[in-house]
Amino acid sequence: MKEIKTEDRLIVALDTGNLTEAERLVEELMEYCSIFKVGAQLFTAQGPEAIRMVQAKGAKVFLDLKYHDIPNTVVKAAEEALKLGVHMFTIHTWGGREMMKRTAQQLVATSLESGLPRPLVFGVTILTSIDQKILFEELLHQVSLKAQVRSLARLAKLAGLDGVVSSPDEIQDIRDTCGEHFYLIVPGIRPKDFPSEDQRRTNTPSWAIYHGADYLVVGRPITQSASPKRVAEKILKEIEDAVKDRLSLKTPP
Ligand code: C5P
User: Fold this and answer.
1) Mutate to test the pocket of ligand 1, among 25, 61, 64 (most ligand atoms within 8 A of CB)
2) Count H helices, E strands: the chain?
3) Of 30, 151, 204, 233, which is most buried, counting CB atoms within 10 Å of its CB?
4) What is the per-residue pLDDT across 186-221, written as a single tens digit (0 to 9) for each?
């Protein structure tokens, strides 16, 4: 298991279009987490200002725009993400090996030339809101979801990405295929008694960490709760306990 600080393992998704609201969440939650996710909603509404706001508070940014385009376009977008100083960001594994490989290589080169740190790059596999039925019936995809995720994760690793984003269901498979050093970000996290909403492949924080997730992305269970702070604190404790259990290989929760 990698040595990652517990407060780095919980990534809170700032899914709002309002900068003041995002800022309030960062201030309230900084005690429990040090990486905040800026995704499609906040970035579309506020642009790089949202990234600068998180950084100005002393926290790190996970830019989740899931770049999915031709290699040249993704490479250029990745360089902009590096210049913005994000800690990690996502591209889509469905963009293929060349797109992923060129992005990973260019980031190393740009980082060396500019002296700016290289962000970690993660490949999105299959969204946690998609299940096997949707994959077969709507997307007419004939391969099993698990096999597809495993194969995309392997491709991402071969292309030189730092890790992938997957649901709790595929953690074990990806660990088996890509090894312990490959990073795994897991959304679709629902503490006990929280509704899954539009997410289809979900599990609890402790389950995901125990089975090998490195980072958890949590949005609505924290941001929409009456007390974001209390929920974040509870999740962090769950993460801490699961890390200890995994290290001592106790029975899974
Ligand atoms: O509110 P909730 O906890 O479901 O939010 C999960 C976050 O993780 C959202 O911001 C969503 O964009 C992101 N995400 C996801 N599934 C992926 C990749 C990212 O749910 N495969």
Assistant:
1) 64
2) 12, 8
3) 204
4) 999 999 989 999 989 999 999 999 999 999 999 999
